[in-house]
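Purpose: get a first structural picture of the assembly so the mutagenesis plan has something to point at.
Setup: two entries, given in the order below. No constraints added.
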Amino acid sequence: MRQKTHPLLIAFAALTFAFLIGPLVIIIGTSLSETSYLTFPPEGLSLKWYENIFEISAFRRTMVTSFILAVGGTALSMAIGIPAAYAMARYRVQLPAFLGNIYVLPILIPEIVLGFSLMKSVAIGADFPIMAALFVGHALLVLPYCVRVVGASLNAFDFSIEEAAVSLGCPRWKAFFLVVLPNVRAGIIAGFILAFITSLNDVSISIFLTGPGVSTLPIQLLAHMEQFFDPTIAAVSVLLMFVTVGVMAIVERTLGLTFLTK
Amino acid sequence: MPRLRAWALSAPALLLVFLFLGLPVASTLATTFGDPAGPFSQYAAFFESRFRMTVLWRTMEVALITTAVSLVVGFLTAWVVAKAPPRAKSLLIIAAVFPLLTGVVVRSFAWLIILGKEGILNDTLLALGIIETPLQMLYTEFSVIIAMIYLFVPLMILTLVGVLEGIPEDLTDAAASLGATPAAAFRQVVLPMAVPGLIVGSVLVFTGSFTSYATPQLLGGERQMMMGTFLYQRAMVTFDWVGASTIAAIMVVVTLTTVLVMSKMARRLNPVAG
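Result (structure tokens, whole complex):
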């Protein structure tokens, strides 16, 4: 027997979703306006603000930096996060359970505290170049996603398959790459893409580590907003929304979006 | 041998966390106790300064209001989502995930357009004749709170949809068949089972809004300084690293205490575990 949801509740939920989606629709609208100020509904229709993004060299540069950082930082984090997640799932008896808590420390410690501390100790204290410090910061930031999303897949993996391969004479490292990894591919892809978007959108760590000549897209957006308040920012925002759509499509195809409600 | 292998595989990740989180954060915390006037003099100075306490209380207030509103809005909405037919449910989940995965700068920017002096809300209210002069909505606590709620409602919805789906419908049916009114079944069956999830969601929203930077920076500015923007200002504008470290330490203590106390409470209140 399925209970009916009260119509007032449904109306309330509809309002909530209007509240969630409305502002994003407004951004899309303002990005299409012909006017040089932000207005909604748009006056006239034009794509000139999208062209303008690529005419501003700071946006071109920071887009490339942000992309390299998100892919590179996530790859680094995966390279060390997958073995850690594997060890946690495979050697549950041999490893203390608190290791799992250590890997999520980057979420637990306020991001802005982490950014400030990295600036002090790593960028200035250890004299890391800007890009290196950003790499380390972003790899650290996304480590929890790598370990936990891959870990969720590994926990569902039947390790006796791996044992079968090993007992049939397959070297352990080879069994890992040929048997374990292909079986948790969905988790790796989903973890990678969630980490990627987290890194791409990061403000609190990057704001402390960017410096002369090297910046990321969100930091550049913040800087641009302080000087100009034109539809270019709206256009960049829309581009970023396209990235979000791509990310969602990939998560849906791998673990399914309902994974995010767990 | 397996033990060695297990530690060897974990070593790189542990090293990354130790070197680039453990040491730097420990050094930040340690700086706050190094004052020649006494180990706690930085904290004494913080708690005696009227300005700094205003920032701390404002941050607490904004974070608490954001959490409370997100909790109510998120719970009611998640309820509808969890009970929706499968196809509608996946659409609604998409509608909640989309803003969640869109960057904080983009989402805060939306509210700059809406709440600005010549923004959409003021234009609309003027056109409707409700107000005669544009309202100052930006750089007020109101604008920060609205944008924060906007930021965190999707997170709350998604957390609670998972929780509510985990409560078997048989239980409410059983309560009904034993004569419970829907309200009583909700109060005595559903709510107690949802409490741990409500706590988890609230902790996520509270710590997230307590430590946020971009949103208070864009919508609150200098006038509505919060702990995050205050830390940044101390560190990068006035270069007072010890002062910034003290703010950082207070943020760490507040968030960790919240997480520890509340997760202990969530475990204790969990009717299934108890």
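The CA atoms of residues 26 and 141 of chain A lie 31 Å apart.
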